[in-house]
Design goal:
Length: 214
């Protein structure tokens, strides 16, 4: 059985980046979206990843980004992937992948089985799908709100791309989420925070341990 991939998303301080690495997270996520309490600028991203070893992936999370924003982030040399968390079309995802020559992940907002089926449109355009809970209409943020969807929707659904599970994961339910969905990757943000945007070293360690023991 392949190793479970764990992404700690929304990191913004050296101590929490260090905690994620000590806990054997495989992916570190950095949000570049001004409305988010987890927002980091390009120079912060470069500094935060300076001591991250090459075998740990570093993912920038962006929302309907312009090419200029992507160029600034990619120009840091810090990234191994770009995660699109807005309303980017398959065509836009493919264009970003072609221009910036990095793997592209596409977050898929899920509420019903139809949302999962619609994700097939990204075959050939994205390298990984991330299934996240659909946020309410008019919400300020497209993710990181601690919401979860009905995980049983994923049962028996053919997914042709590598994928991960996000939305509402925490220390107490991550093992259940893996059991129900068979997710090869899990992605947590608000579930390891003490307050919005404030990651907890202890919660990061506990979450990774709970996931790894599932």
């Amino acid at each position: 059985m392949s190793r479970l991939a764990i992404k700690i998303c929304g990191l913004s301080t050296p101590d929490t980046v260090g905690a994620a690495m000590r806990a054997d997270a495989t992916h570190l996520g950095f949000v570049h979206f001004a409305k988010s309490p987890r927002h980091v600028e390009a120079d912060q991203l470069r500094a935060l990843t300076a001591q991250v070893p090459a075998h740990i992936d570093r993912v920038a999370v962006v929302v309907d980004p312009t090419d200029d924003i992507l160029a600034e982030l990619v120009g840091t040399g810090a990234l191994t992937a770009l995660q699109l968390h807005g309303k980017e079309s398959p065509q836009r995802a493919a264009a970003i992948r072609a221009r910036f020559n990095l793997p592209v992940w596409k977050a898929i907002a899920v509420k019903t089985r139809a949302d999962l089926d619609a994700a097939n449109a990204y075959n050939g355009a994205a390298d990984r799908l991330l299934f996240d809970a659909k946020t309410p209409e008019g919400a300020a943020l497209p993710g990181g709100m601690g919401l979860r969807f009905d995980w049983t929707l994923l049962r028996g659904v053919p997914i042709s791309l590598p994928w991960g599970l996000s939305g509402g994961l925490g220390i107490d339910n991550v093992a259940e989420a893996i059991r129900i969905t068979g997710a090869p990757m899990i992605d947590v943000s608000s579930g390891v925070e003490s307050a919005p945007g404030i990651k907890s070293v202890d919660k990061i360690m506990a979450f990774c341990k709970a996931a790894q023991q599932s």
